[in-house]
Design brief:
Distance between the termini: 38 Å
Number of domains: 1
Number of strands: 12
Protein name: Asparaginase
Largest sheet: 8 strands, antiparallel
Strand content: 15-25%
Helix content: 40-55%
Radius of gyration: 19 Å
Number of helices: 13
Length: 330
């Protein structure tokens, strides 16, 4: 057995139940995974499974990538910066911001090199197709990040044609920021679904980075890249996700929260006091994410009533609730 495969088997062995799915009076499914909740001082409040497991953070990495962009010349804030950090739903308001980011750098949508896709939002996707459009880089959920990368390259005088190359100055800058904010050396790299380089970290490192971002946003000095990212996301939650998205719902419910979902069951969130949460659902499912995040935020000190609606995940039978998805540590 290869060392890589052996390590992955160990990760699976260390996973524990995070959420149970109940239908009627029976437990129908169980989602395993790893989770960590950090206190504001960085100590561990709760650890389930292996909090130091090495993961692909997927799109939860976007706020850290945005910090690197700001440090190297990107000059946007508010909704524009929130879109750079987003896995947006491809609704018209999202696409308008992406176009504006590109236009501000003197570029058009043809400069985007992310993987073409339909909008994530079902209504937006239906309208996009009905208008005669095929899958496009513009409507893919990472187009805001890619527009930000391109704008950074223009500001720094770097090549825009090779901005996805791991050796490009932008991607080297991203790697340095990820290692710095997580406190974990980047030991693995691959390609994310959108085509950008993807860097490994640990759950604890990811939580640490989000706690740092959120605390910076709550501090009086709002000019650091970390603070700007946190304030953009917390202040414009719809632009980070979209209609009906869980990250949007949680950031709307909890003032100052910085939360970002990632593909394959990854989530990270930071609170204004510096506390933080990160988890990985082992089977990659998004179904238990709201319930697990809500329960973890309660452990981190958030009032249960504040997150109850965002965390609620009913199981339906013939269109009505007959069960729910619930964190095992709730």
């Amino acid at each position: 057995m290869s060392a890589v495969l052996s390590a992955q088997v160990d990760v699976a062995t260390a996973a524990v139940p995070l959420a149970r799915v109940t239908r009627g009076d029976l437990v129908e499914s169980v989602h395993l995974g790893h989770l960590v909740v950090l206190a504001p001082d960085g100590s561990v409040r709760l650890a389930l499974g292996d909090p130091d497991v090495t993961i692909w953070p997927r799109s939860s990495l976007k706020p850290l990538q945005a910090v690197a962009m700001l440090r190297h010349g990107l000059d946007v804030d508010g909704a524009d910066l929130a879109l750079v950090c987003a896995s947006h739903s491809g609704e018209p308001g999202h696409l308008d911001v992406v176009r504006g980011l590109l236009a501000g750098a003197g570029l058009g949508v043809h400069a985007l090199q992310n993987t073409p896709d339909q909008p994530l939002d079902a209504d937006a996707a239906w309208t996009w197709r009905a208008d005669g459009h095929a899958a496009a880089s513009l409507t893919q959920n990472c187009s805001g990040k890619h527009a930000g990368m391109l704008a950074t390259c223009v500001a720094a005088g770097w090549s825009t044609g090779s901005y996805l190359d791991p050796g490009h100055p932008l991607q080297r800058a991203v790697l340095a920021v990820v290692a710095e904010l997580t406190g974990v050396p980047v030991e693995h790299a691959t390609v994310d679904g959108c085509g950008a380089p993807l860097l490994s970290t640990t759950l604890t490192g990811l939580a640490r980075a989000f706690g740092t971002l959120a605390a910076a946003g709550a501090a009086g000095d709002g000019v650091t890249p970390e603070a700007r990212v946190a304030r953009a996301m917390a202040g414009h939650p719809w632009h980070v996700g979209g209609t009906g998205r869980d990250a949007t719902a949680f950031m709307t419910a909890v003032p100052g929260l910085v939360a970002k979902d990632g593909a394959d069951g990854v989530y990270a969130a930071g609170l204004p006091d510096g506390g933080a949460v990160a988890f990985k659902v082992l089977d990659g499912s998004s179904r238990p994410r709201p319930a697990v995040l809500g329960a973890a935020l309660v452990v981190a000190g958030v009032d249960p009533g504040v997150v109850a609606d965002a965390a609620a995940t009913p199981v339906l039978g013939h269109g009505r609730p007959v069960g729910d998805v619930r964190a095992v540590f709730a």
